[in-house]
User: Fold Transposon Tf2-6 polyprotein from Trichonephila clavata.
Amino acid sequence: MPSPIDYKVFAKAELLDKELPGLNSCNKSFFVNDPGMDIELFCDVLQGKSRPYVPPEFRRTVFDTLHSLSHPGVKATGKLIGECFVWPDYKKEVTECGLVVV
Assistant:
């Protein structure tokens, strides 16, 4: 099954993102990661695994993709997103997205 995320476009969006430089300069857990593809993504490695930083234009896609796996509640979807991806205030945004889905 193809990924709903085009990681080449995703990587370009990371490079153009205005939030990422601030996060990268104040949080040493971000680094450039090559996930076995011909692209590089900025990832958080603080929790012992690489969690890609999600630019704003991909956040709804990430939410929809993970939520549609089994339609868990908002809290469970937020936990799943937090285990796999990272962005500032993701819990708040996940709650807002979840309220729209319900």
In short: The mean pLDDT is 79. The first strand starts at residue 30 and ends at 33. The beta strands are 30-33, 41-44, 51-52. The first helix runs from residue 7 to 16.
